[in-house]
Each structure stands twice: as structure tokens, then as C-alpha cells.
Write a structure and sequence with these properties.
Strand content: 35-45%
Number of strands: 16
CATH class of the largest domain: Mainly Beta
Largest sheet: 4 strands, antiparallel
Radius of gyration: 22 Å
Low-confidence stretches: none
Strand order of the largest sheet: 3-14-15-16
Order of helices and strands: EEEEEEEEEEEEEEEEH
CATH architecture of the largest domain: Sandwich
Shape: flat
Number of domains: 2
Helix content: under 10%
Mean pLDDT: 87
Distance between the termini: 18 Å
Structural class: mainly beta
Number of helices: 1
Length: about 220
């Protein structure tokens, strides 16, 4: 595989094509939104939710935008306040909720059962409003936005695999074909066939799951 791992092989810099984002001396907010699961089925309509991220960063990562923070919070994550986040699905549904600034994985529930389940994703717009008090100009209002998509499929008896965007884990129904609730499972890769890694000790899966892994 091009990896030097033998005792007599010298270390080779891995190289790569990933570049670090440019740094910023001023705070930025990386406002993001996404559905918790992709896809949702009709049966999930009343229990759908979206993930909201509002981290304060100092690198120009994707979607990061300048934000003016209260002067008293320059060296602390406390006292940053909240943003009012509105999630809109076309002209059909919307909801608004307060989300702490510098949060990751904040969940906002949204009942989507009134939408028509379809194979085409719905466009979702997320907006955030942030109000801060400044000594010079009083109250300052700042606006941020992000877009995502919602895949809301009709119920089906066929096999469906969901992605849990909170963890990256995959969810599916029991493999016996008799239906049942969705649950996470651990995909298995090529290398477990060596020396019958799992076949000799299936309890390894339980330990890997407990350790937070979602792929073997």
C-alpha cells in the first residue's frame, strides 16, 4: 500500500494535498446546519431534527464569517450569548429557536410529517441573528446563513441505510428481513479477513462499539 513499516525502512514524509486554512486574527463563526439523519422516512416525520453548529474559530474554514463578540468575552467562551436560528424548508415549514454561540451539535426538533415524501431532496435554509451590546453604538445585529438539504423518502419495505450525522454511524433495520426498528451497525472492512480476526472472537465488536468506533 506504499507504507513503509518494516524495521529497515526509513521514514518517508507522507506529503498530501491538504492545505491548512488561512488564519484570522479576529473571531469567525462557522455557522452550519444539517438534518440529524439522512435520509428520513415518512415514519420518522414527527421525530425529525436538525443539527446546528455555531463554533467560534480563528481559521477561514468553509462557511466561516466574521463576527463581533462582546468585549468582555474576548478571552472566554462564557458570556457569548445566543443566536436566534430559523430553519426554513421552502415555503412549507419553519421553526425558530435560541442556540448558544460556540455550540456544536445542538439539536432542533422539527415535525416534517406534513411534507410530501419524495425522492427529490428539499432545500433547507438556515439563518442566525446575533445581537450584541457595544459601548460605542449600542445594540448591533449580525446575520449569518447556511444551506443544506433534507431527504424525506416514502416508507418502503426495501432495504434502507441511514447516516447519523451526529456520529457518522450507519443505521439499518435487522438483517432478518422481518422489519423492526433502525439501529446502528458496524461495517466490516477487508482486513478483518486476515487470520479470521473477528471469527475467532466476536466479542471484539462489542468492545469496539463501546470504544466509540463505527467501522472495523
Amino acid at each position: 500500500c506504499g507504507k513503509n513499516f518494516m524495521p529497515n525502512q526509513t521514514v518517508v514524509p507522507p506529503g498530501g494535498q491538504f492545505q491548512l486554512p488561512a488564519s484570522s486574527s479576529e473571531p469567525l463563526i462557522a455557522f452550519r446546519c444539517a438534518p440529524v439523519f439522512r435520509p428520513y422516512l415518512e415514519e420518522d416525520g414527527k421525530d425529525a431534527a436538525f443539527l446546528i453548529d455555531t463554533p467560534i474559530v480563528y481559521q477561514y474554514i468553509e462557511g466561516a464569517a466574521p463576527i463581533s463578540l462582546p468585549a468582555s468575552s474576548a478571552h472566554s467562551s462564557r458570556g457569548l450569548g445566543n443566536v436566534d436560528v430559523t430553519i426554513s424548508i421552502g415555503n412549507y415549514l419553519y421553526t425558530t429557536e435560541e442556540v448558544p454561540v460556540n455550540a456544536t451539535g445542538f439539536e432542533i426538533s422539527l415535525d416534517i410529517h406534513s411534507l410530501i415524501a419524495q425522492k427529490t431532496p428539499y432545500n433547507v435554509s438556515c439563518s442566525a441573528t446575533y445581537k450584541t451590546e457595544t459601548s460605542s453604538s449600542g445594540t448591533t445585529t449580525q446575520y449569518f446563513s447556511a444551506n443544506t438539504s433534507l431527504l424525506y423518502l416514502p416508507d418502503t419495505s426495501n432495504s434502507v441505510v441511514k447516516t447519523d450525522l451526529r456520529t457518522g454511524a450507519l443505521w439499518t433495520r435487522p438483517a432478518d428481513g422481518k422489519g423492526g426498528a433502525f439501529a446502528p451497525f458496524i461495517p466490516q472492512g477487508f482486513y478483518i479477513s486476515f487470520d479470521q480476526y473477528l471469527a475467532k472472537n466476536l466479542s471484539l465488536l462489542d468492545q469496539l462499539k463501546a470504544d466509540g468506533f463505527n467501522t472495523v
